[in-house]
Amino acid sequence: MSNIPETGRTQRVQIRLIVIQVLVFSLLLTLGGRLWYLQIRNGEEYTTKAAGNGVQQVVQPAVRGSILDARGVPLADNETRLVVSASRTELLKMKDDGVGVLTRLAEVLDMKPEDVRDKVRLCDSKTPQPCWNGSPYQPIPVTDEATTQQALQIRERAEDFPGITAEPTAVRRYAAPGKAKTAQVLGYLSPVTDEEIQKALDGPSPYLRSDQVGRSGLERTYDKELRGKAGVTRYEVDNLGRVMGEAENDPAVPGSNLITSLDARVQAVAEYELAQAMKTVRQETDKITGRKYEADSGAVVVMESRTGRIVSMASQPDYDPNDWVGGISGKQYAKLTSKKSNYPLLNRGIQGQAPAGSVFKIVSASAAVRAGYPFDGRYDCSSSYSLGSQTFANFESKGHGPITLGDALKYSCNTVFYRLGHQEWSRDGGIKPRKDAKNWFYTTARDFGLGSETGIDLPNEVKGRIPDRDWKQNFWNANKDAWCKEGKKGGTYVQQIAYENCLEGNQLKAYDSINYSIGQGDVLVTPIQMATAYAAISNGGTLHAPTIGKAVVSPDGRTVQEIKPKAQGKLPVDAKTVKDLDKGLRAVVEPGGTAAWRFGGWPQDKIPMRAKTGTAQVYGKQTTSWFATYTDDYTIVMTISQGGTGSGASGPAVRKIYDALYGLDEQGNQDLKRALLPKPQTKLPKIQPDGSIHAPKIKPYDPRPVQPEGEQADPEFLVPQPAGQPGLTGSPATTGRRP
């Protein structure tokens, strides 16, 4: 039992409690003071610092998928290049902000130090190019053309190049197999825009500011499939930009591969023969004007007749899509978009518009049948047709007397169609159209797919033009003010025309329908439209939406999404009329036909050929050459602006494309070993277990004529010969309207 007095013990307990209370109060006071210091006295400073902390993401672009031809040959793929990049985060940790490192790097790369520094500076409204427009946390590429020796120097002297990497990276490549550029069909890539970045912020695959996206051709149409899914790594960073840790990492997924219906071998032939035809015709003289033909642009389309799939599409002038890889220079861009170079970025297969000339007569013949004129009826093919004081001449002012519509196609007789067009215009009411006017010549053209897009899987296709009564009225509404302002009765020719247009430019006149009946006047068509129409006659009447994409294959090869041909309508005539048209077009290549001289020796019994020539007059320019042809397998349409007659300019090139497809020599003998594609390719190329596709090798196109077995080639023909060699050329003298 303790002998300490009870009062003393109580006093000590009270003292201890007081001390504890003082300590607790002191701690609370200290904590309160600290909170006051943090939240009130320096609250604004720390709020600002806290706001600077956050999460930054670095995007790793996916490897873009390849574009392959129908046999698996790469048309556009990726090649590995050594890319030297710099990390701004690491450079800014250095006392001199990395200036010394960048100077040493410039010496290794044989670049100027200021050029290297400019590459890694960040872009803003005041900073001119070059500069970096991407994330400051992203490795910034300095060059994608480093040599192996340069990369080794950087890696071996890592202590001299902190923050610098030299790594192999996939870069887009347009392979041009067999010299087939396929430029306008493939398209090109260019940097993403701020608008696209903003739009993609909430999407599954955000863009880098330095990312490349499809701008034209297949690269644009199938950009989503080819691009894949970008990888995203998210980092926690403080307000000074220092990385505090990795928050999340989503790996990149490569893009899918696109298999097309194109054949690189046929594409090489088409590109060569189109360019050669234009080169040849520039040496020839227009017999009307006395000037050499300019042949400033052209296009050719090779289509599967039964499916609408495109085997080849070439356009001139062309360009090298590799010019866009890594960023196009201002000089190159100016060249590609200048009038002087005649706009090589245009795909004239789907964007080149011109009057159709006589290749349009399949439409007029069909319209006549719909209007009640029998195909086998007799129609006067006189040497000319008169309308008041105007005279519309036949080709070479020749007449053939009473003939059928089939013969009108064979001889390309203009006057038959002049009369039919004029008669139908009058039947519809002439200048004052009847309410129940059928307008067969115009509605039939639209039912053939003219005046509207074909639906091909390429961007920026143009519609062409069918100048019916509605178009005349709309065109007048848009231009009448200018016409009325410029027009003057009894003035100059231009002023008088403007005056007449001001008063009655909305009226469809008789001469409008007469010109229209042979594809002249204000009518405009594209090569792809005419190819679609002629292919429909070949296959019995089905109009297809042309397609180039054949299948989308996942990177691992496990998923194959086929793109089936799509029928989008029928020709507006019955099966008998389709057969009649086919018979008339077959006669065009037989003795007496306008294209017979281009198909001498053709094996018509084995590979039936049909064709139609066209020579379209264009105001202020030389005539445009058209040549539309088909077999049971393929439809080929070629056009050359300011190239003269259809058979004269385009004929030899089209014949050579067919010779290459079927393996024919000049005498029509077939060697299947030489044939590139005697039948359309129906199967997809074999996909390996790892997702790869083994492509066959392509031999360069040999433009020399194929000699019959046992014969030796004449030394004269051991080099490519222009189409103007004896026996292969010679456009007939032409006066007046031409087929």
TrEMBL record:
The keyword Disulfide bond does not apply. Residues 60-246 form the Penicillin-binding protein dimerisation domain. It is found in: Cell membrane; Membrane. GO terms for biological process: cell wall organization; peptidoglycan biosynthetic process; proteolysis; regulation of cell shape. One of its GO terms (cellular component) is plasma membrane. The chain crosses the membrane at residues 17-37. It is a single-pass membrane protein. Residues 680-739 are annotated as: Disordered. Keywords: Cell inner membrane, Cell membrane, Cell shape, Cell wall biogenesis/degradation, Hydrolase, Membrane, Peptidoglycan synthesis, Protease, Transmembrane, Transmembrane helix. It comes from the Bacteria. Its main location: membrane. GO terms for molecular function: peptidase activity. InterPro entries: Beta-lactam/transpept (IPR050515), Beta-lactam/transpept-like (IPR012338), PBP_dimer (IPR005311), PBP_dimer_sf (IPR036138), PCN-bd_Tpept (IPR001460), Penicillin-binding_protein_2 (IPR017790). Residues 298-658 form the Penicillin-binding protein transpeptidase domain. The keyword Membrane applies. Belongs to the transpeptidase family. PANTHER family: PEPTIDOGLYCAN D,D-TRANSPEPTIDASE (PTHR30627), PEPTIDOGLYCAN D,D-TRANSPEPTIDASE MRDA (PTHR30627:SF2). NCBIfam families: pbp2_mrdA. This is Penicillin-binding protein 2. The lineage of its organism: Bacteria, Bacillati, Actinomycetota, Actinomycetes, Kitasatosporales.
